[in-house]
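Fig. S4 source data, part A: sequence.
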Amino acid sequence: MIENDFDIIEVNPCKSLLTKLETLIPDAIVIQESIDDPDTYQACQQINFSDKYHFIPVIFTGSPLPGDKKVRLLESGADDYLEEPYDSDITVAYLRALINKRQNFSCLAEKYDALKKEVSGAKVISAGCLDPDDEELFKATLQQSAVGIAQMSIEGRFLKVNDRFCDIVGYTREELLSLNYMDITYPDKDGTELKMVKMILDGNADSFEIEKRYIHKKGHPVWVKLYTNVSRDESGNIRNAFSIVADISAQKEAEARLHESEAFFRTMYESSSIGIVRMSVHDKRIEQANAAFCDMLGYEEHELKGKHLRDISFLEDMAENVVQHNKLESGEIPAIKMEKRYIHKSGYLVHALLHANLIFDENGNPLYYMGNVLDITDIRTSQQRLKESEEKYRAYVDNSPHPIFVTDVFGMLLDVNPAGCSLTGYALEELMDMNIIDLCSPKSVDAATEHFLSVKKNAKVSAELLFLKKDGTEFYMQVEAVMIDKKTLLALCVDTTERKLTEKLLIEAKMLAETASNSKSEFLANISHELRTPLNIVIGYSDVLLSEVSGELNEKQMKYSSSIKDAGSNLLEIVNSLIYIAEIEGGSRELNIMKFDLKPMVADLEKIFRSMASKYNLIMEFDVDINIKYVLADESKFKTILHHLIGNAIKFNKEGGTVHVVFGRDDDDIKVQVIDTGIGIPEDKQDELFDPFVQLDWSHARRYSGVGIGLSLVKGLVEMHGGKISLVSKVGEGTTVTFTIPQKI
């Protein structure tokens, strides 16, 4: 486009540009390399920060750039950036105008050539400084430069500065001319600049180039690229110091961001819990792998490098893997997303989710695969166990003999096992369109609704409800309902129809039994009353005969009369006991509670049973606690209790044994113990003794007579008083019967 108007010399690569400038000084330099290429950026800076070449215009060309990149170019020293598409006439005219504007810089080149000729021997002046005495040239250079320019005294005080330098540090020209360069220099921990300045002052150098930070007037640091050069007189003394300053804050910030980004992604790569692996395109071999991927497969990274994909993949997954690679390379899919299985170093399978991309160079050529691999072995194992568990429990549910119903919170059926279908007579498909209330009998709809609402409130409820089969048959089910979660209820059911029928029959049988029992008790009471009158007559006339009021009795008559009285008295005792039992079983709770003195009763009992005890050569003992002043009870029934217990203790005792009756207190109760040294009672028979009409049925007890109502009567009379009775016995050692009578009304 411009070769007809300019002599063009091509230089390639860009980094050889400075070498070319040693033999040729062009009117302008046009760079068509990418600005992201470090060599391009460095070449531009080297030209513009050099006093030797800084007057040569540098223009970049290429596709349109965002604003921040254009700013970066200008800060690096570029004069402009020409964007595509180009207009031939405008481009040529622009370049000519730029060159004409810089024509005054040709004298700099001449001056530089003159300085070179004056240098003798091998000593080369590395950087000619702008001559501050050439005021016109200096002003032109200062005001047209894209970089900051400052002239300083040997003490470091600013003598001249251009507008760009003022912009960089934020001060006005007047403010800077009153300052020393150290006043705006950020503290240098390494002292690099001071060392360079010392070398110049010592005559060991005439220039230096460093990166440093100024302190902006607003207080923030400003990174710059500083090139400082001095000119000396014939004696070697410094005449002037001249600095060229390029603002590289944006570059430094970009480098910092790049460093942070690289550090971030390096940290992510190394510490990521997701496996990251790079694989070559041409032979599918691993080139790089992070720690997570190595741990996932049990290898060290050096062991994985060079392995082919098939070396670590489950064979059955390779075909799909290859298909996905082909689709990705052909552009059919943007990335590989698949689940696959790897082979661990130990031989077991590792389930993983693979997400892989193909990375391309700037020309669109594939460089390598980059894959992210997430280990989902635990998830797949858990899913498999869950599946097996669901299958197992599904088998339990399906094979359960009892109905199981699952509903939502509105009662709509979600699942029913075969037993539920069989019992209700509905097919599963029919039940899935029904509500649990639809299965209830009209008689139990209200109860079922209340039950269902209670489950949602209390999480677990139990009830027995009446249901209807498809054919209209009623049946009962015991329903144990629980909330599985906030949306689902589970009902475990048992068909209780037969049990309900059995309960009904049992209730009817119980009612019949109670009626029969009441009839029996009534009969016993009636017959006992009928027997009591003649017995009283028999006993009364026996007493008359024995008192010999009607005349003396001989020995035989006396013996017969005594026998009649004893037999009548025993029979009357049995009749009275039957009457008491009948009253107790009939629900009679009539007690004549009163306070009475215990001592007369004890004396009477001792008198009654003393002769009976002596007949068996037994020792009778009565102990009464001195703190017992009186007893609060039905005196007649209390005496009956003692009569039966003492009688049994004598009756079932052994020759020469003892009967010990102890009256004491147990808190507020009267506590009575009747202790004997008799034959004792087997442990397996003890619980039966308090049942009515039960007698001991074992070898040692069969020789004793009785109808077996004594202890049953005693138990009933004690419990009528609100007391308790217990028995402790050991065969061959004796028995202790203990009862308590509360003393509070």
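Fig. S4 source data, part B ends here. DSSP finds 23 helices and 25 strands in the chain.
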